[in-house]
Amino acid sequence: MSPRQACLECLQRDPPALLEAALWIAAEHDNQLQPAHVLSDLHSLQLQVSAGLPALPARELAQPLLRRLAELDFQENDEGVTRPRHALIHEVLRHRRGQPLPLALIALELAQRLDIPLQGVNFPGHFMLRVPGADHLLDPCGGRRLYTRDCRDQLYRQLGPGAELSAVHLQTADAHTMLQRLSRNLRLLHLQQDNLEAALKDAERTLQLGQPNLLDHLARADVYQKLDCPQGERYDLEHALLFCEEEGLRLQLSQRLRNLARAPAMH
């Protein structure tokens, strides 16, 4: 079974094996990685976290769990430059530095093992967590509580002062959504390093993990363009057109397809 197939198989379980699936994503980029070994080693981290939690009902342990991880030096990347290792889950476990999403995936795995209720929230620009039914979100990077005003401020920083906070920004993220977001993050990070083969793997996986959309098809078309693969680029441009409702963009995509049709065949 390939790492991609193993990742998708993890999502068919009940409940989905989220962290294991993320490890299989990492295995696509590191053929030395053995997800089973990482999962086995995670037991020692579970014991460390559990030993530092207060004697409270499980519903009140989500924030202490995140604070405990911060005490154990699991922190948001502070290097100034974000690299693929800050999104690859085995590297985040090894170096204890990463983006909010992989830090959240680690917290969700530990919460599940310790029977602590916790959910992912697909907030723009900065992945969040939430205890079901709570009136606030939790920052996976340290456990800070985020109320409506904090969320609005975060949204302004990400999308600009004209953005309006709505229920869609606070939706619970299922396993497919989280791994699709992880794949998009990795695609961008690999592109920044001009690792086109890795970016193509991430772009393909993004389309497999959830409902395809305009931007995902355009992103893969751009990778194919950089790889001088007109057939793949054409496929994604044609599918992007099916989702496109903006007239100006439709004209641009149509022109790009015409340019591809006029390009000399490669032999």
Explain what you see.
Belongs to the UPF0162 family. The chain has helices spanning 3-10, 18-27, 35-51, 62-71, 89-95, 100-113, 148-159, 175-192, 196-209, 214-226, 230-243, 247-262; strands spanning 75-76, 97-98, 119-121, 128-130, 137-138, 145-146, 172-173. It has 267 residues and is mainly alpha-helical. The strands form three sheets. It has a three-stranded antiparallel β-sheet with strand order 4-3-7. Strands 1-2 form a two-stranded parallel sheet. The protein has a two-stranded antiparallel sheet with strand order 5-6. Strand 5 (137-138) and strand 6 form a beta hairpin. Helix 11 (230-243) runs antiparallel to helix 12. The longest helix is centred in the last third of the chain and has 18 residues, at 175-192. The protein is globular. The mean pLDDT is 95.
The gist of it:
With 267 residues, this protein is mainly alpha-helical.
Give, in order, the helices and strands.
HHHHEHEHEEEEHEHHHHH
Strand content range: 5-15%
CA radius of gyration: 20 Å
Shape: globular
Mean pLDDT: 95
Q: pLDDT below 50 for ≥5 consecutive residues: which ranges? A: none
Strand count, sense and closure of the main sheet? 3 strands, antiparallel
Distance between the termini: 33 Å
Number of strand elements: 7
Broad structural category: mainly alpha
Number of helices: 12
Percent helix, as a range, is 55-70%
- How many domains? The number is 2
Describe the strand arrangement of the main beta sheet, using strand numbers: 4-3-7
Protein name: Tetratricopeptide repeat protein
Keywords: Coiled coil
Domain Protein SirB1 N-terminal: 37-183
Coiled coil: 179-206
